[in-house]
Amino acid sequence: MKKIRLYQNTLFKVGNKISLEKNNEHYLLKVLRFPVGNTVTLFNGDGFDYQAIVISTKKTCKVEVLSQQKNESESSLDLTLAQGIAKGEKMDFLIQKAVELGVTRIIPIQTERCVVRLKTDKVAKRIDHWQKIANHACAQSGRSVIVDILLPQTLSELLSKPNHNGFVLHHRATENLQMMEKTSKATILIGPEGGLSDNEIKQAITAGFQPILLGKRILRTETTSLVAIANMQLLWGS
Question: Helix %, strand %, coil % for the chain, to 5?
Fold first, then answer.
């Protein structure tokens, strides 16, 4: 059986006996038919992996924490993805793959060309949905930290805050990532379907974001984000 990793927002200590949360219990017992005596890896976002053994499947699924081990899978690059909100499954896919590629946090950005306009009463539900995708991607990719999905911001709100090595994709840029000085912290700003407007790119550059060119071809937003993240990890991270 493949190695099972589960996220649970619980304090783990070696020797503790813990009941799994309902969604984890359902996955182990109903989906995987997990028997007593098998082991799972748990993580809670503190950077450690916890090996646990299933000790009971009656009424609730209980496990005993056997060991704690530091997880060394994190990149040395502290990378923020400021992503123009894309439609439906595209945004879900983007978040999943960005987490797998090692981003530190994701900020959904409302821009001029965003087709999706989140209503105030729907924001919390959408963030919860995206956070679950991010948590699952952390588990799947072997990470033991949680990638926070921050509350949506307007571009003006993002640019009003100090940025640490901000970069913005621009098809007229003359420099690429290989020409940039290596950094341990960066923010990459990428537009939604249709990209950022010329005015938005100008605003970003005025706020200190460096324009960069990924290549000669026009990429979809979900491709652009992942190519940019992968290149940054290759050059500056892991």
Answer: 35, 25, 40
Going from the C-alpha of 4 to that of each of 28, 31, 40, 138, the distances in angstroms are 9, 12, 5, 12
Query: What is the DSSP annotation of 32-71?
Result: S-PPTT-EEEEE-SSSEEEEEEEEE-SSS-EEEEEEEEE-
Q: What is the pLDDT of residues 170-227, one digit of tens each?
A: 888 888 889 998 999 999 999 988 889 999 999 999 999 999 998 888 788 889 999 9
Contact, 113 vs 194, CB < 8 A?
A: yes
Question: DSSP states of 90-128 as a string?
Answer: HHHHHHHHHHHTT-SEEEEEE-TT-S----GGGHHHHHH
Q: In this structure, what is the dihedral angle of CA atoms 62, 64, 70, 73, given to the nearest 10 degrees?
A: -30
Residue with tokens 């700003």: 189
Residue 7: its H or E element? strand 5-7
pLDDT on residue 226: 94
pTM recorded for the entire structure = 0.91
For the chain, helix (H) and strand (E) counts, in that order, are 6, 12
